[in-house]
Amino acid sequence: MTDGDRTLTRREALRAAVAVGGSAGLAACLNLESQPTETGEANRNTDPPDGTESAAELPNRQHAWTEFSRTDKHGNPVLARHHVLLLANYVDDGPVDDVDRKQAANAFRELEETYRWASDGLLFTVGYSPAYFDRYDEPLSESVDLPRPAALAPFEDPSFDTPDLLVHLASDRASAVLEAKQALFGELETANGSEVTETIDGIVELVDRRTGFIGPGLPAEHDDVNGVPDGAVSEDAPLFMGFKSGFVENQATENSVTITEGPFAGGTTQHLSLLRTELDQWYNQDSREQRVAKMFSATHAAEDLVEGVGDNLGDSSLVSETGVGDRVSDDAFEEGVVGHAQKLARARDEDGDPRLLRRDFATVDDGRTGVHFLSLQESIADFIQTRTAMNGTDVANVGGVGTKNNNGILQYITTVRRGNYLLPPRSKRSFPRPS
Ligand code: HEM
Question: Whose CA is nearest to atom 9 of ligand 1?
Fold first, then answer.
């Protein structure tokens, strides 16, 4: 595959194929994945993984991905490398009828049978927005906190996503996320070697398709994208801003984000935002030490706690171990900077655990860098509370900290879109009724 005069590396070509999508993207992926690789990159096996035979084998929590994912050498769960987000609307007005509900249930079930439920096969979730539940006369069960999306900082003006449903496809194999979309929408006769018989074609209309990636090496491949300073993103960075994220000690557990009561017990809520990142400023305006202070804390910078992308940190960002969460206003006065992770550590629950299970990933959709910030939490209130801590409004204009300047990473990110969804338990995954 070539891009102008440049020959794309294999990894970059796979990422680019996911972004392109369609039959051309899929053909390119399948071709690349059938070639031998020495990099340990997930490949399409000549003997593809079998699908999951029985739905009963799978947990009722759609979001129970961890036990089916890789872990790194420190025990941190590793998110699949390739992601596709499908925003779609039900085609009719009013409530969804039972025939269509059954059709979609069969299509989602067939997808599980087609791919092994694992990050090297296919993991997916299906979520529903507040706009979807407006189709019904009865209100959404009070056991679920699912407000309409809103601006969550005084300095942001996002657009709001209001599709009925959001399908999140994730796999280490680029071909799987592409092929699964095409199978679901009835664009293929076979997928992963099996015949496609059940689809959501005709009952939903795709309104947007977004793509992304996460993992060492993938962001560094994109110094050709607008706004990425040449050679600035380190070769082993899993995300564009150059640091590892998602340490197990700094994430909510799947258990703690699960709704425990009512008709959606076993489900969770999902927030999806699109953040644009200003990497030119991040890498050119700041020294490495400033970047560590802004991402973690001034203590992390002064004590040199973060080496490279932060793999040395093991399974914790050390925000609780260093107690920096209690020093936010002192650091604003004394250091003139407060860190992102430091501020966020203030938003933990009564047991001292993070409220969010972050499953965010990088993107170059529309030729610009950004993050599809996807997180799971028991209630959207947990997200709002966490995001409020990140706003650092209490330390804006304290010491050397401004509304955005030296206030974590706020200066380098802009929230472009926000949307809220309910991920029902697997048994209610297809067009759930509100109660
Ligand atoms: C460009 C966007 C972002 C980047 C690159 C980023 C990166 C990071 C990094 C490197 C850490 C420290 C390592 C870790 O704990 O995983 C962290 C922690 C965290 N971030 Fe972000 N983040 C971003 C946006 C957000 C947003 C929008 C939120 C939600 C409001 C958020 C919530 C958190 C939380 C809850 C923690 C853990 C805090 C704790 O330990 O209690 N992040 N982030």
Answer: 245
